[in-house]
Structures are given as structure tokens and as C-alpha cells.
TrEMBL record:
Pfam families: DUF1853. This is DUF1853 family protein.
């Protein structure tokens, strides 16, 4: 488990910020240099991926000499009902910061929306980048200034008005197979990790080998030391995924040894 955890952490560190500075919605990225690529923590295997990533960020922050975590995962309640959660309150060079952590997988579909940001959607079309950005701006970040949050801050000796708000927003992006080398203008091109296809295009990869990682292993940098599936086995296994409107991420190994990350999506679009 330690080795798997380390490989997931390595993949997490390898993932780039989705944009630089505050170029998207005025949301300032919290940029630090990682001082350790090895992780030593205990994680709950039942954690969903988002919470799992927060444990990675917590470990990373604790390695920073100029960063001090004041509190993390602060539940803000009203009449015993949870209004939301503040991911991290910290000091960076003595400056108090409210930090929200996000790690996402998005696919580019220019039939959705009218801008580059609006074109990125979740693999199952149930969420999108623009929805997440709006939620950050309209709900998650304003929570710091709510009257319900003030007692929590006072107990920590903090004032909302004196705090900066920043995000730690990493993402893996996937382009249509037919346009996988398209350059992004607003978002960080270093986030592009692969491409996506639907079942109609699968035959083009009949000579390849396939691997279906667990959800938390979507973080991994692809490598050869896995049990590969042949084309027929992969197609058979993924039939149920697609039937249940679930788009799996897989690793694709070509005859020349190259390995790529790829989503096999259940939906159709003219631009795949």
C-alpha cells in the first residue's frame, strides 16, 4: 500500500495547475514548490478522491517551512445543518489565507458552451469546469464572510477581512482524438494528459493493449508494470461501463511501447 500511495502522490505532484496566477475568474492559484516527492501518511481507503487529494495537499503544506496550517476541513454549521466546509486556513509568510483544494478530470467538447472554459466537461457529462468555477465564486469562497463562519475564525484569532483567498486547482485534461494536439489559449497546456474516444473509434486501437486503473489510480503516471488486457477483453469489460453511462479512464499501450491515457466515453459528439 505504501508503494501505491507513493505512486499516487507522485502522480498528484506531476499534475499541473489548471491556470497560472489569477488568469481565470480572478481566482489566485496558491503556488508552492514541493520539497518532497515521498509521502508518509495514513489514509482512509474509503475516502472519495477529492478528500484523498486533500490529504496529499495537507502533507505537502506541512513540508513547507514558510507555511503553517492553522486548521483544515472546518465544517460551518447553521442550526446543526452543514452550510459548507473551508478546506484550509493557513499562514504563508505570516499572511493568513483561506485555501480551497480542487482536483478534476475534464474533457474538451466544443459543442458545449461558447468559450474554452465552457467547453470542458466531466467524463460523464454530469459536471463542468464552468459550474465548478461558479460554485467557487458564488458559494465556497463567500462562506468565509458569512456570519456563521465568524465564531470559528474568532476562536482561531482570525478576521475574514484580513485574509487572502486562493485556490489549489489541479486538473487532467483530455482532448478529442481527432484534435488532440490543439493548443489551449486560457488554460494550462501542461494539464493535457491524453485524449478521448467513443466505442465507434475503438477498432482503430485493436492492436493495442489496455489497462483499467481504479479511480484513485487515475492519478498515476502510466507505467508498464500492470496486467494488460487485449482488445477483446477490454471491449467486453467496458460494454457494461458504457451501458451504464460511465466513461472509464484507461491506459493504452501501443505496439512501439508508448503508453497514453485515454477516456472511453459513452456519449456521442461530432468532434471526437
Amino acid at each position: 500500500m505504501t508503494t501505491k500511495l507513493s505512486k499516487r502522490y507522485e502522480g498528484f505532484l506531476y499534475t499541473s495547475f489548471l491556470w497560472k496566477s489569477d488568469s481565470v475568474f480572478g481566482l489566485k492559484q496558491f503556488e508552492i514548490e514541493s520539497s518532497s516527492s515521498k509521502i508518509h501518511i495514513t489514509t482512509d481507503p474509503t475516502l472519495r478522491l477529492g478528500k484523498y487529494i486533500e490529504r496529499f495537499v495537507s502533507f505537502e503544506l506541512k513540508q513547507q517551512t514558510k507555511v503553517k496550517i492553522i486548521a483544515e476541513n472546518i465544517q460551518i454549521l447553521k442550526d446543526k445543518i452543514t452550510l459548507g466546509e473551508l478546506d484550509f486556513l493557513l499562514l504563508k509568510k505570516h499572511t493568513p489565507i483561506h485555501l480551497e483544494v480542487i482536483y478534476k478530470f475534464y474533457l474538451y467538447d466544443d459543442t458545449v458552451g461558447a468559450s474554452e472554459i465552457e467547453h470542458f466537461i466531466g467524463p460523464n457529462r454530469k459536471d463542468s469546469l464552468i459550474e465548478k468555477l461558479n460554485k467557487l465564486k458564488e458559494k465556497q469562497l463567500p462562506l468565509l464572510y458569512s456570519k456563521e463562519c465568524q465564531p470559528y475564525l474568532e476562536n482561531l484569532g482570525l478576521q475574514a477581512t484580513s485574509m487572502l483567498q486562493q485556490v489549489y486547482f489541479n486538473a487532467q485534461l483530455f482532448m478529442p482524438y481527432s484534435n488532440q494536439n490543439m493548443a489551449l489559449k486560457t488554460l494550462n497546456n501542461a494539464c493535457v494528459e491524453g485524449f478521448y474516444i467513443n466505442h465507434k473509434q475503438l477498432l482503430a486501437f485493436k492492436a493495442c493493449k489496455f489497462y483499467l486503473p481504479d479511480k484513485k489510480d487515475w492519478l498515476l503516471i502510466p507505467h508498464t508494470n500492470v496486467t494488460w488486457l487485449n482488445f477483446d477483453s477490454f471491449r467486453s469489460i467496458t460494454k457494461d461501463y458504457l451501458k451504464n453511462t460511465y466513461s472509464p479512464l484507461c491506459w493504452l499501450k501501443f505496439k512501439n511501447g508508448d503508453i497514453k491515457k485515454m477516456f472511453l466515453v459513452w456519449w456521442q459528439t461530432k468532434n471526437i
